[in-house]
Design brief:
146 residues, 4-stranded mixed β-sheet, two-stranded antiparallel ribbon, 4 helices, 45% helix, 16% strand, globular
């Protein structure tokens, strides 16, 4: 008999991902991040695959720990100061994939504040870019061409 997983309606969207990916596969720190994303009411998917070209130009499929569909953001949970994120950061950036690296080995409040501030900064930057594009397009229509 499989263990029964109880899910409240408010948690159903995030926990669908846990059921599909099996919560047993999550590390304790990933569970911590998942719980925090639930607290923020951010729907997430666990280990959604992304296709990219690595730094040597080889095709790869990686599975960042979390994907936030409404925001189009990925989160990599990094729980060790001994392993560098540089290789993955460069590869994601080269492929235009927005990933936030959360260093959970740091002070608990520090990584939570960092995650919220990065999400906020990314969304503000996107908003600014869209407004700029829309205003630029509107001005081109209004102003005569010289």
């Amino acid at each position: 008999m499989e263990p029964r997983i109880e899910i409240s309606l408010s948690q159903a969207s995030s926990h669908d991902a846990i059921q599909n990916a099996s919560s047993e596969r999550m590390t304790e720190t990933e569970k911590e991040v998942a719980n925090f994303l639930d607290e923020l009411d951010l729907h997430w998917r666990y280990e959604a695959p992304v296709f990219l070209w690595d730094n040597e130009g080889r095709p790869r499929v990686w599975n960042p720990d979390f994907y936030l569909p409404k925001l189009g953001l990925h989160i990599e949970v990094w729980n060790s100061a001994e392993v560098s994120t540089e290789y993955r950061e460069k590869a994601y950036k080269k492929n235009g994939i927005q990933v936030i690296f959360v260093h959970t080995f740091k002070d608990k409040d520090q990584w939570k504040n960092f995650l919220v501030s990065r999400i906020t900064a990314i969304e503000e930057q996107r908003h600014s870019q869209i407004v700029h594009m829309l205003l630029g397009t509107s001005l081109k229509r209004i102003l005569p061409r010289f």
